[in-house]
Every structure is written in C-alpha cells, then in structure tokens.
Amino acid sequence: MSIFSRAGVLILTFSCLTPLAVADNRQDVGMYFEDANKLYYQDELPEAIIQLKNALQANPQHLPSLLLSGEIYLQQGDPKAAEYALRQALIYGADSSLVVLNLAKSYLQLGNYQRIISDLQVDGLSQPVQVDLLGYRAEAYTLLDQLPDARFSIDLALNKDARALLPRLANVILLIREGALDEALDNAQVVITDWPEDARSWNSHASVMHAQGDLASAIQSYQKALTIQPSHVDARVAKVGALIDLARLDEAADDLAFLKKEYPYEPRAAYFRGLLLSKAGDEEGARLEYVRCTEVIAVLSKDKVASDPQLLMSAALAHYALNQLESARNYLQLYLNKVPSDVGAHKLLADVLLKQGDPENAIKILNTARSLLQSDADLLTMLAAAYSQTGRHARATRLLEEAVSSGGSLFTKTQLAKSLLRSGDVERGMQALEKIHAQEPTQQTGFLLTVSYLKQKAFEKAEGTAHQLVGLDPDNVTYRNLFGIALFSQGKMEVAREQFNLILKQAPSFSAAQINIVKIDIAEQKLSQARTQMELLLVQYPENTSVMLEMSRLELASEKQDEALRWAEKAFALDSRSLEVVLYLTDLYVKLEKLDLAESVARTGVQNHADNLAVLSVLGQIQTLKNQPKAAQVTFKQMVKMAGFDAESLYKIANLQLRINEIADARYSLSKVLQAEPDYFPAEVLEVELSIKLGMLEGAEKSSRKLQKDYPGNPVGFQLLGDVYMARQLYKQADEQYLLGLSIRPASGLISSRYKALQAQNKPAESGRVLEDWLAVHPDDLKIKLAYSEYLIITQDYKQAAILLVQLLNRFPEDPLLLNNMAHVLYKLKRPEALNYAKGAYAKAAHIPQIADTLGWLLVESGNAEGGLKYLREANSRDSNSPEILYHLAVALKAIGRKKEAIIYLERALRAAEIFEERDKAVALKASLLKDKN
C-alpha cells in the first residue's frame, strides 16, 4: 500500500486535474484483459487484440487494455492504431513512462516528428526512459532540421547515460546532417563496437560511409545490418541506392527482387526498379514501375503519405519521371513543408514550375533555396532563367555574372540598426535617457521617463520625475494625472486623491481624473460612492470605453459578474482595437473560464497590435490553459524575438515557456536575459534550478557558488547548492548547505529540504526533530505539518500519525491524499474503517496511483484478490516504477494462480529500488515461486 508524499506541497483542490476514471462495475473487463494478457505472453497477438477490444468495449478508459493494445499494434505494424490506443491511455492518466517510447515509435513510423517534440515530455520519467525518449526527440529535431535542439537533446541524454544506444544513433544522424562526417564516422564506429549485435548500429555506420561517398564500405555495413535483421527495410533500400550509384546493377536487382517478394508494396523499391529498367533501356518497364510506385502511394492514407518525407519524395520523383508535372509539384510542395531545408527539392520544384510556365513562383522557390545555400551556381543559373521568362533580363544578367564569379559569398545580409529601447535593450536606453534628463531636465525627457518608469512599475522613480514635471508646468493636467497615478500605485491614496481633485477644479470634464478617483473609491471599498460617480460618468461619456471598463471593475467588486461581463463586452463591441479593452476582456473571460471567447478576443488584439508583448503573452497563456502547447510555443518564440534584450520581459517569457515544458526554449530565453544583464538575480536562480532538473550539475554548482558570493545575505545560493548535492546523492554535504542557508534566514523550504537530506542519510530521529522544532515555533505551517505526518508513518508511529491526520482532515476533509494516508495508517493499526477511507480517497482522485494501490491492496489483504487486481493494474498503469505497486500486483497474481506473471512483476519490483518497505517479502515470494516452478 502506498502513502502519498507531496514533499511539502498541500493540494487543496483538484479541479484542474484529469477527470476521475469512469467507474468500472463490470467484472468482465478484468476477465477480458487477463485473457488477453495470457494470450500476449503466448505470442498469440490477433487473439489477444480480440479480447482487448472486448475489454475496451466494456470500459473504453481501461488503462491496462489500452497500453497492451498499443504494444501489440506496434508489433503488428499498425502505428496509427497504436497511436490512438496510447494517446487514449495518456488522456485517461496512464503513467507516461509506459507510453512515451511506444508513442515515439509510432510517430516516427507515421512521420509525425513534431509530435514527438510537442506531445512527449521528458519530465517525471525514469532515467532509462528519459534517455531513450531524448534519443527519439533528437532524431525528430534532426529530421525537422532543428539542429541546435537536436544537439541539446543528445547532450542531455548522454549526460545521463553515455553508453545509451538511441541518443548515440541520433548523434550520428545529426553529425551527418551537420556535415561533420569524420566525427560521425568516429561515433558510428564506437556504436558498433558497443552494440555489435544491433542492426541499427550497422545501419548507422553504413549511413555515414554512404554520406562520405565510400559506397563500397557503406554496402558492407548495410549487409551486416541485414545479416542481423533481414527485415530492416531502410537498410536494404539504402543499399540498393548505393549499388545503383556504383553501377552494380545485378546486385541491386537481387535486393530489389527480395523487396518485391517480401515487401511488394514498398514504393521506394518500385522507383528504384524503374530507374534500373530505364538504365537498361526498358522505358516501358520503367514506366510501369513508376506507375506502381505512384499507385501504391495513392492507396496509402493521406496522413501516412503527408507525414513521411521519403514517400513524398519517391512520389514526386516517380511523377516527374512520368512527366506528370502537376502531381510532382503537389508532392514536392508537401515534401518541402516537412523538410524545408532540402535545396535539391527546391530546385526540382522550380524546374517543374518553369516547365509549367510559372516563373514567378519558381523565383520565390529559388530565392528560398538561395537563402539556404548561397554559393550554388546551378541555383543562380535557374534563377536567372526564371527572371528571363518574366522579361527581367537585366536582373537575369546580374545573376549570371554572380554565378560565374561565385568563388565567395554571393549574398550579404544586412540589418538596420534599431534604437536601444525599441530593440529591447531597455537598461541602456533608460540609462541614456536618465543621463540626458539629469544634465538638462526638460518636459520631453521627463515625460518619457515617467511613462517608462510606470511601465516598469518603478513607481517611486515615476513619482520623482512626475513631481518635476508638475513643477515645470503646474497647469498641465496630464502631468499632474501622471503624478497622481504614481502616488496611487504606491498606495498613497489620500495624496493621490488630492492631485486628481486639483485637476478637476481646473478641468472638471477631465475624464481620466474622474475615473482615477473611482479607482481609489473601489480600492478603499467605498462602493456606493464609486457607483454614484460612475453613473454620472456614464451619462456624461456614454461611449467612453475606459468608463465602461471601470464600471465593469466596480460590478466585479460588487460581486455582480454578469453585469461586469456585460460592460466589458459592450466596450469591446464599441472599440475592438483598444488594447486596454482587449486585455481587460480576455482576463475577465479567463477568470470566468470562457477560454474560447478569451482566445478569440486575444487573436483580435494580436491582429491589431502584432508587435505588443502584452497581448501576445495573453494569447500564449490562454493557449496554455486550453492545452495547446504547440500553439503556445510558437507564440512565446515570437515574443522572444520581439523582446530583443529586455531582461525583465525575457525572464517572464522563460517562465511561460516552462509552463508548457519547453525547457530548451526557456534556457535560450534565460541566456538572452543573462547576456543583457549578467547579474539579473531571478534569471540566475531559475537557470540553476533548470540545470539541476536537467542533470547539468557541474554548471549548477558553479552558478550556486557564484550566487552565494554575490548575495551573501540571501540563503538561495545555499538552497541551490544543497539541491545540487542531493542530485549527486551527497546527502551530508546537502544538509550542510541547508544549515548554512538557515543560519542566514529561517525558511520553511530549507526545513523541508533538511528533512529530506536527513532522511536520505538514514537519520530518521534527527529528521523528525527538525520538523518538530520548526512546528514548535510555527504550529500552523501546513507544509511542515504534512511532512511530519508522513514522517510519523515512515517511522511507523501510526497512533501519532492518526492523531495528526485527524487534525489535517478536520481542516481539509475532502483532501483525497490525506484520506489515503489515513487509510494506510488505520490498516497498520488493524482498524476496519481503513477500507472506507481508501474508498473515499479513490472516489475523489482515482487518477492518483498511490490511491488506487491502497484500495487494491486492502482488497487483496481482505481476501478479494480478483477485486483488488483491477485497482492494482490501474495503479501500475499510472506509476510503472513503484516497487510497492509491483509487489502488490505480484501478490494478487499469485493469489489467483498466475505465478509466471507474478515472477515477472517481482523481478521488476526488485530492479526498481534497492530499498523499499516490502523488499524482503518480495525476495522471499520470488524464491518461493521459483522453487514451485522448478
């Protein structure tokens, strides 16, 4: 049974979590699944699928059935069906460790490379799964020509496991793409040394030799891959290509004959057969093979073809050979959508367009290719031909001259210098402005500074410059209004009201001052007074959107949401271009959970204010809330470009990127922050936290020590260095750092970290005293109180744990994790109500694996092994590496006579952890089962 430790985070509501699993009252679901599981282990896959379909018909959310279906579909060569089953499993809360690698395989087979990146996250997975997934991500990034991201994924994977196969294969692919062929070959040779019995190793080695032009050696390595795995289609097709290039046509024909027999619908092989026949002068035979290639591709699903660059290019080449230019054009355009960096494909498409008499589009395509590869005389010649077709002969002549003298760079990019503030270099821009204003204060520089300070929320500085402005021109109501805003923003309500009243004495109809007085009334909860003033303003300014928005704020403060929304929507209908209105209405829609409407308004804002970071930020956050991480990533990247080197904006963007788990993007944003301001403290801290999370501990240690030196009065450097030591399993050194941090400033987080460090050193008594001492001074610290309840459970002081849990449950009676832990404690105390607490926890949070495990185990212990098994299966589906859950599964399986499968789960449990509470029992049970087996 599992207790749930939240490491100091007390979750009080679960409205944002995955919906509870559909209640499964049908005993036949478990029966169908268990039958399928037996058939799977007997390698009877079609029969197993039938039983899994029966189980899923009874309960479409049954996680074990979805996971096993995905595995079998992949083995049967049906990646689309596998993808669907696995994605459903994720939706319903399966442990991502059980899903992501098979999903990655299915996406690779389908050509959905971007989804490997956008859909499959590394965080929270076991290290071996992380490493393999990073290898798949690196391959996907490379295929998408996002080479820096591919390098980052590979380095991260190899930092975790230097010998892992998948990231090393991805590294070879990346090096080939980067043109570093010697280095690629060195790496490929190491791979075949370490993994000589894996066909993928030899295929990787062959690919490097192929890229180097050493076709004979490439063919030898392809053959070694095929000796190990004759069904390796990619190796055989690539080998055929190399044999044709060496004019070893008979050997190529042999492999093509094998492919035709074993894989008659392999379209790449059909294209190569056509090529061979064409070389032999059999144009009719070649035509038939090209037709076969196009017909095979035509009957494949559109999604399959559109997602597979090799199929797209094979179709394009076959149609081109058949002079079917429109089809060739369509496939090439689809191909370039997938592989936009392929210069050869651009040139082939341009040739098709020129043959079709479409020089303008050919020019566009060739100019795109030119941006990818400038020193290409052939490309320039084609571009000159395209310009000639349009009658622009002078331009064509210049291009031809460039092509003739293309020894150096043909095209030099230039950028116009931007102003410091507009480029995002806010610090230097403000310094320059402040220097000018200090030398000779003017209304112009003072106004610019005041507005800039208000934007940066530097309200005290804004007060100073605004006061200067009022002194320079006391009758200027705009300056006095800015002065009042600066005062109001600091909470100086009385003096701010005085300034706004002075304005109204001078200019009674100055609406901004009237609205600001209402803001003060609302802030001081003088709602009746505010409403009287607002009603007058609405009569005076019936179409003023700022007045409407203030009325909306007043209605919100009065808890009248419908009226608040009505006024905001009225303002938007009146002026949808107003940035103030857009930002307010989107925020209100989000608060009211009307996300589709919020996104629609935000998009209107972006359309009208494309260069505004605030409205883009709102759009990205709405996309995040709507679980659209790919769209949000694009929005945030656009923001990074616009932010330039504005450190504060970039730091905020980095945090937004972390919300969608785009760690590489966030690190890039942080690197720009630290380029602009090397001592920007929040970014320094966040960069260290990310480095620890990613396992980049050497850099994290160096940065933590720098923080200790630069900020001696702040404990954060000691907290972070302690976290580095924890990641290295140097628990004593970690504890020393946390103690140093506490000597600077006591903090709950440092106490929680000390507790974990002492627990890791096997010092339970001392770790408990740390919590007890803190609670003696801070008795209401719920974070530490919860940690202490878990400590009592760990130390088996179940009576005291029950007393503390009763106190916590009196405060939070619906909290499922507290209910679960209470069930665990009462079970240990042999109290019959334990099962009721377990059922109560499961009813509120069935998606949490520890809760399903507790309920399942209590049922097994009560003699209902079959009843408990389905909950334990569910728990394992959501947390595949918990040794306790694996052990409980084995006990349940043994109880119903499934001893062979029980042994498998026991082995997994013993591999999962060196130490866990029931390890000795697991060892004994395994020995007993093996003895019975023998």
UniProtKB/TrEMBL annotation:
Keywords: Lipoprotein, Signal, TPR repeat. Residues 1-23 form the signal peptide. SMART domains: TPR. It holds the Pfam family TPR_19. TPR repeats lie at residues 199-232. It comes from the Bacteria. PANTHER family: CELL DIVISION CYCLE 16,23,27, CELL DIVISION CYCLE PROTEIN 27 HOMOLOG. This is Putative PEP-CTERM system TPR-repeat lipoprotein. It comes from Neptunomonas qingdaonensis.
